[in-house]
Every structure is written in C-alpha cells, then in structure tokens.
Design brief:
The protein has 234 residues and is α/β, with parallel strands linked by helices. The protein is built from eleven helices and six strands. It has helices at 26-39, 44-51, 55-69, 72-94, 103-112, 125-134, 158-167, 181-190, 204-210, 222-228, 230-233, and strands at 8-11, 116-124, 143-147, 174-178, 193-196, 214-215. The protein is globular and about 50 Å long. The two termini are 15 Å apart.
Length: 234
C-alpha cells in the first residue's frame, strides 16, 4: 500500500468504536430531558418542534432557541441540569458495552502507523474515558473531547477542532470517522476529510447529503479507506 500522510484520526465514540448506545435507554432519557426543559419554563411548542429530531439534535436546537430568549447564565444552568440527566443514563451502559466489529484490529493498525488518534463525542468526557479504560484502549488516544459547556456539539466543528488541537494535528492532515451525518458535517466544517460508517439507525439520506469522502461497512475496512484517501490528501 502507498505510505500514508494522514497525521491524525478523530473518531466518534458510540456506534463507531463501541456499542454504548445499545445499553442506554435513550427514549427514557429524552423523556426526562423534555420534562427538565419544561420545568425550566421552556415553551412546549419549541420542545415539540425539536423533540422529533432525536435527543442530541433536540439539545442543539433548544440551545439555539434558548440563547435567543435567556441570559447566558440561565442557559448554562439549564445545560448543567440536562447533562446530569444524560450522564446518569450513559454511565449505566459503560460496563455493558463492547467494541463495534473490527474496531480493535483497526485501532492497533493505526497505532502501528504512528498516526495520532482522538475521540470526539456527544457523550460526556467522563463516560467516554470510562468506556476506553474499561476496554483497555485509553492509551491509544491523545485526546478525548466530550460534550462541554464551552463547545457546541456536532454538527458544529467546535469539538472536532478542539480534538485536533490537543492532538497537535492540523485538520487538513486529519480524518474524522463516524456513523452520523453530524460527524461528517462537523469534520468537513473543521477542514478534515471524512469517512462514514453507517449503522442501522443512520439517517441514510442525510448522510448522502453530507457527502463523506468515503463510506465503509465496518471498521475492518478503515485501513484500506485511509489509504484510498492518500491521493486526495497529498
């Protein structure tokens, strides 16, 4: 194979590296999140319009609406309450989750190439680190960026840019890998190349519209996909 010039790979966590989400009761979590928004005086119409887009998209949409009607301190307080709810649900899945097919082989291969790796996730950093430690691969990663009050979540590029910065890699020399169109959009907005790994709940039309640079069926195909990006990136 042609030598790689990829300097860093940033991965989504859930449904890309691990199956954490299969062990989290997301529907219950979303219901509790909606109740928390309502308890804070958020409009029922706003919540109803946003809640059909999934939990994390709901949060992104509500952030935008809240910033237009409340002070920054009020929004931060609401954020903290919402994220405590999510943390409690996600932690329950840490001990139960495992690798997605082909993940460990791909991670070992990337490590042998001397390519830096990071994780950029909508899960909390604490949960992400807990998962990586439980699966004994935390040492593989130079950066783990989870949801935080200071960074907008994907599809915004904030988390991806922060991840590459900690890794010491220019986004231009990096690749973002994820199962969601939001991963692809965030990677492109950051200036990186993107590889999609769709799963059964991936929104296929949205993924196609995001136009990833490559699409693979599993992590087993990642080394070959990275090599195919070589001619694009050099």
């Amino acid at each position: 194979m042609t030598p790689l010039n990829v300097k860093g790979v940033v991965f989504d966590l859930d449904a890309t590296l691990v199956d954490l989400g299969e062990h989290v009761k997301w529907r219950e979590a979303q219901g509790e999140v909606i109740q928390a928004y309502m308890a804070r005086g958020c409009g029922e119409n706003d919540i109803a319009q946003c809640s059909s887009k999934g939990l994390f998209n709901l949060m992104n949409e509500m952030d935008t609406r809240l910033m237009a009607s409340k002070s920054k301190d009020e929004v931060m307080t609401i954020h903290e309450g919402i994220w405590r709810i999510l943390d409690s649900y996600e932690r329950r899945g840490v001990e139960l989750c495992g690798f997605m097919p082909g993940t460990l082989v791909a991670l070992n291969w990337i490590k042998k190439q001397g390519i830096k790796m990071g994780v950029c996730t909508s899960n909390s950093s604490e949960v992400a680190i807990g998962v990586l430690e439980k699966l004994e691969v935390s040492s593989f990663f130079d950066s783990v960026i989870g949801r935080t009050l200071s960074l907008r979540m994907k599809p915004y590029p904030d988390q991806v840019l922060a991840c590459f910065k900690v890794m010491g890699v220019r986004p231009l020399d990096g690749v973002v890998v994820g199962d969601s169109h939001n991963d692809v959009l965030a990677g492109k907005a950051a200036g990186a190349r993107t590889i999609a790994i769709p799963v059964y709940f991936t929104r296929r039309e949205a993924m196609a519209a995001a136009k990833p640079d490559a699409t693979i069926k599993s992590m087993e195909e990642l080394p070959e996909a990275l090599h195919k990006l070589y001619d694009i990136m050099k």
